[in-house]
Design a protein that fits this description.
Layout (H helix, E strand, L loop, with lengths): L3 E2 L9 H5 L5 E4 L2 E4 L8 H5 L5 E2 L17 E4 L2 E2 L2 E2 L1 H17 L3 E7 L3 H7 L6 E6 L8 H15 L3 E5 L2 H14 L3 E5 L1 E5 L4 E8 L4 E5 L7 E5 L16 E5 L29 E5 L9 H10 L3 E4 L1 H5 L20 E5 L5 H7 L4 E6 L12 E4 L2 H13 L2
Parallel strand pairs: 5-8, 5-10, 8-9, 9-16, 10-15, 11-15, 17-18, 17-19, 19-20, 20-21
Antiparallel strand pairs: 1-4, 2-3, 6-7, 12-13, 13-14
Helix pairs in contact: 5-6, 7-10
Length: 394
């Protein structure tokens, strides 16, 4: 439901057009018409002196209006023929939400060869798989995947759709939410449900990480959220079992797609923090950029990767691909060693769910010690070389 123009009252004065910051109104035959770019902000309603514009009362939407929407869905991102680990993490979290709502968690699988992926997904506790199979879905393309997903969602009506906040997931989620005209909360760090209204409570950092905002979409369905990899724990797989696959016919035409995949070049990124089991991170407390070489030596001995705080990246000490935190990577390693990192809330948001956290800092009051499993007060460049020597002589 959009703005309503009352033609009998509209005189074509143009005051509303001047007030609209989105260029969503125009004059046609001396009457105002509303374009698809309208966001229902209401500025035009306030400016109209002739009461010729009516804004719908969206607050009248009630939970019972969504009674046909049921179930929690997880979008399956497929990399090299297998589900991305963020998909499995979301299945685990989605299962918890679904149990509270009294429904099942299902997967949305789009691709050309879906059988091996479906077999892998059957090892997890899912209700069913909703799938579209087409050669046009061999590789990710925004329009093709959104078109396929739209058909599934409109037919089966899930109330919640969860998507991994990878580069693919972010692109897909944005396009999907736009076409569905529903809400989307990006980069969530926590999810919960309000059972009485069947609302998804989506928590994410806001205002530069200074507060945690909890958002809910009370006027639209499905409710959509993206979640970074490693925010939630990976569920334990079981044995393969029979899972119902609801296969929908594909109507996607290659001729109607604005893009075409000419060549697929695998990523050669040298830093893979999201999958690292051990991370040694450095902050300004390490003293100078050259000291990252010492942290790398420790990381190599432990079979891990080098991370960094935003301050060191902004200072040009190390490349952004190493950054851990709200504006960098969210990680969940077995061991996280924070070297000279004070523990700003933005950094903690990206690593506090690590299994074991070791903090080394000269300041005994540094916030990093509040989340650390073990803490050592002292100079990083005195302690880390001693750890390296111990490991080498072990």
């Amino acid at each position: 439901m959009g703005l309503k123009i009352i033609s009998s009252k509209c005189v074509g004065c143009g005051l509303c057009i001047k007030a609209c910051p989105f260029d969503a109104l125009k004059l046609v035959d001396k009457k105002v018409v509303v374009l698809s770019s309208c966001t229902l902000c209401g500025l035009c309603v306030d400016k109209c002196k002739f009461e010729a514009i009516e804004k719908p009362d969206r607050e009248t939407v009630k939970p019972e209006d969504f009674k046909d929407f049921r179930g929690v869905w997880v979008f399956v991102q497929v990399d090299d023929g297998t589900p991305h680990h963020v998909t499995l993490e979301l299945i685990g979290e989605g299962k918890k939400l679904a149990e509270e709502l009294g429904v099942g968690v299902s997967c949305m699988l789009l691709g050309n060869i879906i059988e091996p992926v479906a077999h892998e997904l059957s090892r997890y506790d899912i209700e069913r798989i909703y799938a579209v199979k087409s050669p046009e879905l061999e590789r990710y393309r925004t329009r093709a995947f959104v078109d396929a997903a739209i058909g599934l969602i409109r037919e089966h009506r899930p109330e919640i759709v969860l998507i991994g906040a990878t580069s693919t997931g972010r692109d897909f989620a944005g396009g999907l939410a736009t076409v569905l005209r529903t809400g989307l909360t990006a980069d969530c760090t926590d999810l919960a449900v309000e059972v009485e209204t069947r609302s998804l409570l989506q928590t994410r950092p806001a205002f530069g990480g200074n507060i945690m905002a909890t958002i809910k979409s009370s006027r639209n369905r499905p409710q959509m959220a993206t979640v970074r990899p490693k925010v939630f724990a990976m569920p334990h797989p079981g044995t393969e079992r029979d899972v119902e696959v609801v296969l929908s016919e594909s109507t996607i035409s290659g001729d109607g797609q604005p893009t075409k995949v000419l060549e697929w070049i695998p990523s050669r990124e040298g830093v893979n923090l999201a999958d690292a089991n051990v991370i040694v991170s450095g902050g300004r407390g390490i003293g100078k950029p050259e000291n990252f070489a010492v942290l790398k030596e420790l990381a190599d001995l432990l079979g891990g990767a080098v991370g960094a705080s935003r301050a060191t990246v902004d200072a040009g000490w190390i490349d952004y691909s190493h950054q851990v935190g709200q504006t960098g990577r969210t990680v969940r390693p077995s061991l996280y060693i924070a070297c000279g990192i004070s523990g700003a809330v933005q950094h903690l948001a990206g690593m506090k769910t690590s299994d074991v956290i070791i903090a080394i800092n000269r300041d005994p009051d540094a916030p990093i010690f509040n989340v650390a499993t073990y803490g050592y007060v002292g100079d990083v460049m005195d302690i880390v070389p001693r750890i390296i020597d111990k490991l080498k002589n072990r």
